[in-house]
Amino acid sequence: EVQLVESGGGLVQPGGSLRLSCAASGFIVSTYEMNWVRQAPGKGLEWVSHITTSGSNLDYADSVKGRFTISRDNAKNSLYLQMNSLRVEDTAVYYCSRQSEYYDSSGYLFDPKPMDVWGKGTTVTVSS
Amino acid sequence: QSVLTQPPSVSGAPGQTVTISCTGSSSNFAAGYDVHWYRQLPGTAPKLLIYGNNNRPSGVPDRFSGSKSGTSASLAISGLQAEDEADYYCQSYDTSLSGGVFGGGTKVTVL
User: Fold this and answer.
1) How close, in Å, is residue B111 to chain A by CA atoms?
2) What are phi and psi of B29, to 5 degrees?
3) Distance (Å, rounded) from C-alpha A96 to C-alpha A17?
4) Which of A68, A99, B53, B105 could form a disulfide with B68 if both were Cys (CB 3.0 to 4.6 A apart)?
């Protein structure tokens, strides 16, 4: 079964750090583009970060650039998000998601690739 | 303020059709990027509902349909059912932000 399971969330003080993990099963993480998406309490979805299959391209939302780092461990088939200098506004449920290639009948590859597998999320609370 | 603009809420009676708009700009939809739609039930993770503007993944009923033209996209739900009550999000890519973008989300209420 294709599955993503996040872990590592918790309560942390402002200025602190956390490392989120996302364990994949049923597929090989390194063969898919992967993302972190977060949702603050009562708010909508916010894209946070993205890693390409090669791992050479890392993208970040402006709100986390310079503070968060996305990475991958191919041997553990896992995705990570290192979060430093945490702020109260980083409080959210953090989801990891997989992007897959989808084509139309003429062979056109949809861009961006849709996020077709999501984990259940892990909660991060930043508070003093 | 989301890059993609959605109405906060829409509602309809059972059996009716509701439409959710998603307004983008020259740096996302008009730049040629496709739109995807996700449904999120309370307390659960989002789930892919429509991909590539108007395509349904396996298992999604044909009551759900999407479209995209210029700087706008829309999701239509026909034959509205009580189980359709959820939050719906559009998603694409934005060149000016160099990253993924989501709409602010629309809550669908079945009257």
Assistant:
1) 22
2) -60, -50
3) 18
4) B53
